[in-house]
Amino acid sequence: METTRSRWIPRKNWNEEKCEFLSRKWKLSPILVKLLLNRNIDEDQLDSYLNPSFDKLHDPFLMHDMEKAVNRILLSINRREKILIYGDYDVDGITATSLLLKFMRDIKVPSYYYIPHRENEGYGLNQDAIKKAYRKGIKLIITCDCGVSSLKEVKFARSLGMEVVVTDHHQVENPIPPDFTVLNPHKPACSYPFKELAGVGVAFKLCQAIAKKINFPEEKLKSYLDLVALGTLADLVLLKDENRVLVKLGLERLPSSTTPLGLRALISTAGLSGRKIGEREAGYIIAPRLNACGRLSVARTAVKLMLTETSKEAFFLARKLDRENSRRQSMEKKMCEEAEKNLPEKIKSVLVVANKNWHPGVVGLVASYIKDKYYRPTVVFSINEESARGSARSIPGFSIFEALNQCKHLLTSFGGHKMAAGVVLPTKNIKKLEEELNLIADKKLTPSDFIPSKFFDFELDPDLLTEELVENLKVLSPFGPGNPAPLFLCKNLKIISHQTINRGIKLMLTGTKEKKKFEALLFNPAFFNGSQYEKDKIFPGNKIDALYFPTLNLWQGKRSIQLEIKDLSIPE
Question: Residue limits of the RecJ OB domain (predicted)?
Answer without folding.
Answer: 457-567
